[in-house]
Amino acid sequence: MKGNKRLTIVIKLGSSSIVDEKTREPLLSVVNLIVETAVKLRQDGHRVVIVSSGAIAVGLRRMDVGKKPKHLPRIQALAAVGQCRLIGLWDSLFAEMQQPIAQILLTRNDIADRTQYLNAQNTFTELLNMDVIPIVNENDTLAVSEIKFGDNDTLSAITAGMIQADYLFLMTDVDCLYNKNPRIHADAQPIEVVENISSLEADVSSAGSALGTGGMSTKIIAARLATSAGVTTVITRSSSPGNVLNIVRHGQAVLETQADSAEDRSLSSSSSSFQLDRLPKPPLHTRFLPDLDPIRDRSFWLLHGLAPHGTIYIDEGAHRALISKAGLLPAGIVDVDGNFAQQEAVRIVVVPANSSRPAPARSTSSTQNLHRNGASQPSSPQNGDRVVKSKSGSVEVGRALVNYSAAEIARIKGLKSFEILGVLGYAESDYVALRTNVSLVKRERVSRPVTPSPAGGI
Question: Which of 134, 237, 100 has the alpha carbon at shortest distance from 182?
Answer without folding.
Answer: 237
